Amino acid sequence: MWIKPLHTCCHYRQTVKNTDFSSGAPRTMNNPPIFRFAPSPNGRLHPGHAYSALVNWHMARQTGGRFLLRIEDVDGGRARDEYIEQIFEDLAWLGLEWEKPVLKQSEHMHHYATALARLDKMGLLYPCFATRREILEHPRTRSMPENPDGVPIYPGLYRDVPEAKTRPRIEAGEPHTLRLDMQKALAIAGQKVGEISFRERRRDGSCRIVKASPACWGDVVLARKDMPTSYSLAVVVDDARQGITHVVRGEDLRDATSLHRLLQILLDLPEPLYFHHPLVVDRTGRKLSKSDRDISLAALRANGITPQQLIEQLPPLYVQEHLAPGSRCKTQPLTGKKHE
Question: Which domains are assigned to the chain?
Fold first, then answer.
């Protein structure tokens, strides 16, 4: 297994400001830092998930904070109850403990609907009736830059269509998505806070202020017929509801942080401190993935691997300054077969 930090595509202007890891978030005996691990139950957890959970749990213990588990199952087409039980088993096998009850996003859709309604009242949402294929094949899409996921930015096909034309289609039950008008959103956020930025803890323990670039996502989808909220909207709503003070997740989500910070500003939600840890990758440098059916924690357990043996193959839980972006640590491969 190869372990190294990976980079993402948006470029940030960074102003470094030295501070403690807990700075920027209230911390008292009655209000400790709050961390969370939030997997989606659409597949089995792999060593990359284990590392993210362990980093959050370790940092919570290090700072005298709380560790929460959240199940992000808003995608009803892919989420499975059996994977939720597997998540509990995997984390318990790692020796982790979390507060109960566990928040399941599918049980709180009304909170996301409330957030959507607020954005709509601000004039920031509009319906789009084009399918993904129609968008990709549209001539205007060919000249659009790619977003951080490598997909051409939506060219605004329905952005300026008047409500008098879209309302009858919605009332008729025609499938559509709700998109965020990025330029309007940026204008309102700019009026509220000026330059949009987020606070990021670095691996040497210092903190920097990072200029956010939400525009690189374009007019993102915030809801669709089969999924009445998006990952990004649900995440910022739940982080605020649960009082999350420290969002600790993989480097592959750094670009998403710009969009999340924009939504926090628009919805007047508190700003957490972010830390993006290195990713666990295979020998070729590819990030481990559920969709690629990489070795699962259940398969490792079935093959006799112990939690300690797994942890020894992961990046250090105390992330040191010398583990700079672009570096890699070579480790010995774990024994186990790819699960089917």
Answer: 2-330 (3.40.50.620)
